[in-house]
Design brief:
The complex is a heterodimer of chains A (264) and B (98). With 264 residues, chain A is α/β, with parallel strands linked by helices. Chain A contains twelve helices and eight strands. The longest helix of chain A is centred in the middle third of the chain and has 16 residues. With 98 residues, chain B is an alpha+beta fold. Chain B contains four helices and four strands; from the N terminus they run H-H-H-H-E-E-E-E. Classes of the chains: A alpha/beta (264), B alpha+beta (98).
């Protein structure tokens, strides 16, 4: 029987879908049976981030409304035969699926997979409630911005009210140089405020843009720093003890001189 | 510019890195304040009612109070939140004075 994780953040644009795709692909690369479920009905994106957008025949709404069987809607990944996606519907709205239907659907997925990863829509309304309904554990994604951390705090409160404990936090888009110069909140600043367990930190990295352009999760790119961060995160989810990614590169005399000459 | 100023410019002292008005510090402070508000607003009404009745139970062991005039609520001012209760006392229960 698999474990069901929901990836959520409250605020949009902090990297929920990217995180879901990378955790899913990372776990699949480690040989786990993985299903990813996009619950952002009306605004599906996980298919595109995974590069599976041309393979969709049926979606989650077709499954719950009985137009197809679950196995018909699951898209098998082209890179890993142990990784599947159940896409969201693009033409329906969030009320097309109920919480009870979602619980039933996840109950049907669980026996066949080691991990079910649910990509939650932004917000705290119907779509959020659906996404968390069948989950065992929750991963909260945030970024070093006042608005993102504020929404993460709200989401943490709501998750706890719904009986989720041991929440795990991913801090995305860290820019070490800016933290060092005092222009960005640090990992410790955010942990102090949110007081939840840290699952991992992901540096702001251009490779996320290029890997999303290609539909290849960065976790599969051996040279990507963000990919390394996601590889660490997936290993931690599998119970390994992996130290946090080293963010700060030692600043030498020349880079300091360059900063000075640049008028900073 | 003196030599020591020049030296400080090239090799900043430790404390100048931690000066309070970096945008990082500002972000943290604004976040702290906004969360005090958010968390305060999310206290459910039924919890307040329970607290109120338990408070009355405890205080009534020691003094007779006018429950109808009891006023309780949150006072939010910049940066903090306080629970404020005004409880009119009718008389102290003599059996509890030792």
């Amino acid at each position: 029987m698999g474990v069901v994780y929901v990836v959520t953040s409250g605020k949009g644009g902090v990297g929920k879908t990217t995180t879901t795709a990378n955790i899913g692909a990372g776990l699949a690369k480690m040989g786990k049976q993985v299903a990813m479920l996009d619950t952002d009905i009306g605004l599906r994106n996980l298919d595109v981030v995974l590069g599976l957008e041309n393979r969709i025949v049926y979606d989650v709404v077709d499954v719950v409304q009985g137009r197809c069987r679950l196995k018909q809607a699951l898209i098998r990944d082209k890179r890993f035969e142990n990784m599947y996606l159940l896409p969201a519907a693009q033409t329906k709205d969030k009320t097309a699926v109920t919480e009870a239907q979602m619980v039933e659907l996840i109950g049907a997925l669980k026996p066949d997979f080691d991990y079910v990863i649910i990509d939650c829509p932004a917000g705290i309304e119907h779509g959020f409630k659906n996404a968390i309904a069948g989950a065992d554990k929750a991963i909260v994604v945030t970024a070093p911005e006042v608005s993102a951390v504020r929404d993460a705090d709200r989401i943490i409160g709501l998750l706890e009210a719904h009986g989720f404990h041991d929440l795990q936090l991913i801090i995305n888009r860290i820019r070490p140089r800016m933290v060092e110069s005092g222009d960005m909140m640090s990992v410790d600043d955010m942990l102090e405020i949110l007081a939840v367990e840290l699952l991992g930190i992901v540096p702001d990295d251009d490779s996320i843009v290029t890997s999303t352009n290609r539909g290849e999760p960065a976790v599969l790119d051996a040279s990507s720093r963000a990919g390394q961060a996601y590889r660490n995160i997936t290993r931690r989810l599998c119970g390994e003890d992996v130290p946090l990614l080293e963010l700060t590169e030692k600043e030498g005399f020349f880079s300091r001189l360059k900063t000075l000459l640049a008028g900073r | 510019m003196s030599f020591s100023e020049l030296l400080t410019k090239f090799f900043p002292r430790e404390e100048s890195k931690n000066k309070p008005h970096t945008s990082r510090e500002i972000a943290k402070e604004r976040l702290r304040l906004v969360l005090v508000q958010d968390r305060g607003n999310s206290i459910p009404d039924d919890m307040l009612l329970r607290l109120r009745s338990e408070l009355i139970d405890v205080i009534s062991r020691y003094m007779v109070i006018d429950e109808t005039q009891l006023d309780m609520g949150f006072n939010k001012s910049e940066g903090e939140i306080a629970l404020v209760a005004s409880i009119p006392v009718v008389r102290i229960k003599q059996e509890n004075i030792s």
